[in-house]
Amino acid sequence: MNWKELKEFANSLDEKQLKKKVVLWREDEAVNDINAENLSEDQYIGDDDEGCYSLSDAGLTIDDVKEKGLRKVYDKGSPIIWEKF
What we know:
Strand order of the largest sheet: 1-2
Number of strands: 6
Number of helices: 4
Structural class: alpha+beta
Order of helices and strands: HHEEEEHHEE
Oligomer: single chain
Radius of gyration: 17 Å
């Protein structure tokens, strides 16, 4: 699903449905504490990493990207939906 399809789906809901909590239904669970935002920084990942992160969160600089073999997976400003932990 892309953002256009998500917007079209949301626009098809009635007012009562729009006021309900968003639920992401997974195979064995329902995630209902969800946030949406635009990324404030580029996100990177390395070959051995389990998830992506910003350079500032990892304490790295742009010079470290090539040295550590990181690749950018999401650009700053990309819209995301994420589970609030």
